[in-house]
TrEMBL record:
The lineage of its organism: Bacteria, Pseudomonadati, Pseudomonadota, Alphaproteobacteria, Hyphomicrobiales. Pfam families: DUF192. It comes from the Bacteria. PANTHER family: UPF0127 PROTEIN MJ1496. InterPro entries: DUF192 (IPR003795), Saro_0823-like_sf (IPR038695). It comes from Pseudorhizobium pelagicum. Keywords: Signal. This is Signal peptide protein. The keyword Ion transport does not apply. Coiled coil: none annotated. The keyword Ligase does not apply. Residues 1-26 form the signal peptide.
């Protein structure tokens, strides 16, 4: 009897592990919207972004993504204005993180976040949104702090 019970426990644990692993690796679905970054010299750069709106979506973010088109990104909406910390665990893409105030103004840019790093990337103050773009895009397009992000999501939250 003891051997049968031990076998049952091992089998149940193995099944639970497989179930948890498949749930953890499942990619969530994200709504999309177009947004524009308007630089201080009047240039406009359009992006197709996925929206990370729920705690689950914000937690997953761009983890496990191997590639992303140059004009795509992900906009994290934190529902309120607060200090935000990000990291790159399980994220193979280098990313630029644009920290955005409630009115759409970029307050800080962390360029070329290191893939798979567990280092904390701080917003350096309260923000409402973070936009993640492919690493190096902000510099290549001349996007800097003080530029403005225009999107339906940000306009609705003002």
């Amino acid at each position: 009897m003891r051997t049968a019970m031990s076998f049952f426990r091992k089998g149940a644990l193995a099944a639970l592990f497989v179930l948890l692993a498949s749930v953890a690796s499942a990619q969530l679905q994200f709504d999309r919207e177009e947004l524009v970054i308007e630089t201080q010299d009047g240039k406009r750069h359009a992006f197709d972004v996925e929206l990370a709106l729920t705690p689950e979506q914000r937690s997953q973010g761009l983890m496990h993504r191997e590639s992303m088109p140059p004009d795509h990104g992900m906009l994290f909406d934190f529902d309120d204005t607060r200090p935000v910390s990000m990291w790159m665990q399980n994220t193979p893409l280098p990313l630029d993180m644009l920290f955005i105030q409630k009115d759409g103004t970029i307050s800080h840019i962390h360029e070329m976040a290191v893939p798979f790093s567990q280092a904390i990337i701080d917003s350096r103050g309260p923000v409402s949104y973070v936009l993640e773009l492919n690493g190096g895009r902000a510099d290549a397009l001349g996007i800097t702090s003080g530029d403005r992000v225009i999107s339906p999501r940000i306009e609705a939250g003002r």
